[in-house]
Amino acid sequence: MTQGKIGVQMMMLKGKVEEIGAYETMKKLHDLGFSSVEVSQIPMTSENVSELKRASDDFGIDITAITAPLEPRMPGLKQENLTDHYDKIVADCKALDCDFIRIGMLPFSIMGDKDKIMDFIHRAEETAVKLAEEGIKLYYHTHHIEFQRYDGTFLLDLMKQNTSKLGFELDVHWIQRAGVNPVDFITQYKDRVDLIHLKDYRIGELNVTDDDLKDMPAFFNKFVNLIEFAEVGEGNLNIPAIIDASLEAGAKYFLIEQDDTYGRDPFDCLHDSAENLRKMGYADWF
């Protein structure tokens, strides 16, 4: 069987990095058995880059990908980005022996505007070509908004059709939230998906109070917003089938992410996700 590598999207550990530092955070991931991380929403200060590198060397953890937007998420926002800080981001990537830079999402200011989005993707493709000369791959991470249809075609498919160097980091929870079957969809992106986000999808508990029953808008707000981010193996997605489809499409890295842990310690959530994946037969992927 072809084998991938299971890792962690560190966005869910940004609070831990603030609390105990990048090095100790990586040490705890090592103790949980992980040997691959994707860095996101962690300030790439010289100290953090240095500590990530030290931990990578000491614990044998691969820095699989780092994150940088093409431009700030909103006009006027001070945010390190590939347009204004290209050389610094490339230097960080090389310092961490990293092969991938990922764009986490569309700028908020262009969401819903097809023409602006396609211009953004065109510029992302130009940047991907430029980064390829440095031996670095540029990837774009998907949510559900890319599954809006324009003249019957998913926006994400338009993005793929108008690029060749840009890769796509498909997030299986957001594909499901868009009303699309992740197993069927992933195979359509063969050879464009080295990176997959493993993130489960569950329906949370509906706790109805007497006050809710007196306020129908409040009740229905709860009723229609029950979708939660789940620990891998604790939700409704067919994770083995998703992994099989991802392998068929050429995916190599499977990064666990949970956008909200609902009050649980993220290390406990990662422990449960890892144990579930081991029980599914992926122990050798850690």
Throw out a few tags for this protein.
two-stranded antiparallel ribbon, 12 helices, alpha/beta, globular, 8-stranded parallel beta barrel, TIM Barrel
Give a verbal description of the structure:
The protein has helices at residues 14-20, 22-31, 46-59, 86-95, 114-132, 155-161, 172-177, 182-186, 210-214, 216-223, 239-248, 266-282; strands spanning 5-9, 36-38, 62-67, 100-103, 137-141, 149-150, 153-154, 167-171, 195-198, 200-203, 227-230, 253-256. The chain has twelve helices and twelve strands. The protein has one domain (5-202, 229-285): Divalent-metal-dependent TIM barrel enzymes (TIM Barrel). It has 286 residues and is α/β, with parallel strands linked by helices. The strands form three sheets. It has an eight-stranded parallel barrel, surrounded by four helices.
Could you report the average pLDDT, rounded to the nearest whole number?
A: 97
Helix count, DSSP H or I runs of 4 or more residues: 12
In what range is the share of β-strand residues? 15-25%
Could you give the distance between the termini? 15 Å
Across the major sheet, the strand order is 1-2-3-4-5-8-9-12
Tell me what the CATH architecture is. Answer: Alpha-Beta Barrel
Number of strand segments: 12
CATH topology: TIM Barrel
Elements, N to C (H/E): EHHEHEHEHEEEHEHHEEHHEHEH
* 3D shape: globular
CATH homologous superfamily placement: Divalent-metal-dependent TIM barrel enzymes
Could you say which structural class the secondary elements and strand pairing correspond to?
alpha/beta
Calculate Rg over CA atoms.
19 Å
> How many distinct folded domains?
1
By CATH reckoning, the class would read Alpha Beta
Helix content: 40-55%
**Low-pLDDT segments:** none
Largest sheet: 8 strands, parallel, barrel
